Predict the 3D structure of the following.
Amino acid sequence: MTQPTVIPRLPAGGGMSGHLRTALSLATQGVPAMPLRAGKLPFGNCPACARNACGGRPNMKIPGSCTCPRPCHGWAAATIDPQVLNSGAWAAAWQHAAAVAYHPGGAGVTVVDLDDPAAIEWARENLPATRTVTTTRGEHWIYRGTMQSANAVRPGVDLKSLMQYARWLGNGSGVTAALPDAVRALTVKEPPAPRRAPQTLSVPLSGQRGACPHRTPTYLERGISMAEQSIAAASSAVHVTVYRTFLAVLSTHGRCGCLTDAHAARLFKAAQSKGELPRHCTDAWANALTALGL
């Protein structure tokens, strides 16, 4: 299957015929499409595939891999085959469809699903601008490239790419950017802490001399403030939140030489206010540096 590098500009569609027309248009561009029922949910398994009788998850890695002609297996029902989309077996699904969904991974993209204003503000401060689609509660930021999908990677943020579906809500605006390290870092688990971690703060970034991407002098300051707020808002899994926050900050600001000991000290202070010990902060910082190759 040929995968496009950007989501195509197509009509959003509406009504039963509109949903099918949109799905067919998406399919012609190599974007696997599928119907959604009310509640933004996929149609359930058909009787022939109930309880994964046709093979289940081993066959779900590729959209349309199930040979059953009816919508089943959630995201894996998405297909680029117009004959399947427009077949009689799908007629009932389109008749009752409330929306159209697509498989981002199959289209070669990743969707950063931002569910509330706070999540959108975080994205604006920490992620590069890209194609943006307005949703009912927030925005979808679409990047070129695929990765593992994950829910709740931070408050109000889900990642939809491989083995996941996203609602088709129209073209959006902006140019699709490449998937940044800051998004990939959201799913990275902290590696085991080194046995003999240093007890004092060390930020070995002075040798980094990359091009500074900061748009204004306040860009870094607002990024650090957002990171402090993210740590302060953690009500559970504080250690994981601290590590992911360190990883996101370093991914965005760690290569151009702008990040200083003072900035790191602010993040350590925020983490320690949530109960983290100094050695925990140092371990998380060192592991984030290692993960990013810094």
User: Anything to note?
Assistant: The CA atoms of residues 250 and 289 lie 7 Å apart. The longest strand covers residues 109-114. DSSP finds nine helices and ten strands in the chain.
